[in-house]
């Protein structure tokens, strides 16, 4: 299905009426009109429930879609097999985009089209994702890597090395707290950046409760137990940083200058990522550490020590049945639950 090309349109659902009650004095709305109005209100309401990061990602994807339709000379509200497969091909050939990037752009484009009331046929979307799988296979066969790839999980040995490499300065105490809390609750960078001092609540001899507000999976409160090793105890690390910084409220993680002066403003998600990357460099780890390395690390290390899917999802804020968690588990289970292990080779 297509419509006239208008690249000025934004990646959101159409403006929805705030009410379906006709107060203008014009003819009463028909049942069909009322149903259409309810559909518009529902679409707008559902779109508003998406997390801010998701809305931004979809908006970025829609702008890329607009660029593509402009280059291709097709209507912006095109949803045919050719339009969607062509988008995958365009991202591959003109942008040299990674598989993960194309997947995200394609998802955003489909969401944007549906937001404008354009039905996306299952055959069209299936063809586009099959084209993407073909691209992924060709890259693998050619040994070509595009994008950063999956984050390398941080093991407990890595975590211990990074913690020990943190200096004894106030900034070093902050870095250790970021590192250990981030690992323990499998936090995203944005979640660490959004933490307030009052979000980390004492649970007595058990440790701390980290209240992360409302995340992708709903209201989120995660347990932070005391560690058995001081080098990797997240509770001790938090208390040491908080005491050194003299904080009682405000952002949990803040900028510290070279004179150990602690600023009032909190670190951004990007700055949190830079802190984590520096921790990896200090410890001279043989791979690049990212914010997601902590998240992947918690899942893999927990699985290695016998945690089940539900426990890991609860601790890291993943939705039950998460494909990402299954992927982390596979890296462990392919060895511990290997069909060849006990056959006597």
TrEMBL record:
Q: Name one GO molecular function term.
A: DNA binding
Query: What keywords sit in the KW lines?
Result: DNA recombination, DNA-binding
Give all residue intervals belonging to the Tyr recombinase domain. Answer: 149-342
Is the keyword Cell membrane assigned to this protein? no
Region feature Disordered, mapped onto this chain: 1-31
What SUPFAM superfamilies would the database entry show? Answer: DNA breaking-rejoining enzymes, lambda integrase-like, N-terminal domain
Keyword hit for Transport: no
Record-level GO BP terms: DNA integration; DNA recombination
InterPro entries assigned to the protein according to its UniProt record, in alphabetical order: DNA_brk_join_enz, Integrase-like_cat_sf, Integrase_catalytic, Integrase_recombinase_N, Phage_Integrase-like_Recomb
Pfam families in the record? Phage_integrase (PF00589)
Q: Which PANTHER family match?
A: DNA ADENINE METHYLTRANSFERASE, PHAGE_INTEGRASE DOMAIN-CONTAINING PROTEIN
**Protein name in the entry:** Phage integrase family protein
Annotated organism of origin? Tamaricihabitans halophyticus
């Amino acid at each position: 299905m297509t419509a006239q090309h208008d690249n000025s349109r934004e990646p959101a659902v159409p403006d929805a009426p705030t009410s379906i009650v006709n107060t203008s004095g014009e003819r009463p709305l028909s049942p069909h009109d009322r149903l259409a109005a309810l559909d518009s209100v529902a679409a707008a309401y559902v779109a508003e429930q998406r997390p801010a990061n998701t809305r931004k990602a979809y908006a970025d994807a829609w702008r890329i879609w607009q660029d593509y339709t402009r280059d291709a000379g097709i209507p912006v509200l095109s949803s045919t097999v050719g339009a969607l497969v062509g988008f995958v091909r365009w991202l591959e050939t003109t942008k040299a985009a990674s598989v993960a990037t194309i997947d995200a752009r394609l998802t955003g484009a489909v969401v944007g089209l549906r937001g404008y009331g354009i039905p996306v046929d299952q055959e069209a979307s299936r063809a586009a994702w099959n084209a993407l799988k073909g691209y992924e296979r060709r890259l693998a066969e050619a040994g070509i890597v595009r994008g950063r790839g999956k984050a390398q999980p941080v093991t407990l040995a890595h975590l211990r090395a990074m913690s020990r490499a943190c200096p004894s300065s106030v900034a070093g105490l902050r870095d250790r707290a970021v590192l250990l809390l981030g690992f323990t609750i499998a936090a995203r960078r944005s979640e660490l950046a959004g933490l307030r001092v009052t979000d980390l609540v004492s649970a007595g001899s058990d440790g701390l409760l980290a209240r992360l507000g409302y995340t992708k999976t709903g209201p989120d409160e995660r347990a932070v137990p005391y560690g058995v090793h001081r080098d990797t105890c997240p509770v001790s690390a938090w208390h040491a940083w908080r005491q050194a910084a003299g904080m009682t409220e405000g952002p949990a993680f803040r900028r510290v200058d070279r004179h150990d002066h602690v600023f009032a403003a909190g670190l951004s998600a990007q700055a949190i990522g830079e802190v984590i990357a520096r921790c990896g460099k200090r410890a001279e780890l043989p791979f690049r550490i990212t914010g997601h390395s902590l998240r992947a690390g918690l899942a893999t290390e927990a699985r290695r020590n016998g945690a089940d899917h539900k426990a890991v999802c609860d601790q890291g804020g993943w939705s039950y049945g998460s494909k990402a968690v299954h992927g982390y588990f596979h890296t462990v289970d392919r060895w511990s639950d290997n069909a060849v292990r006990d056959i006597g080779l």
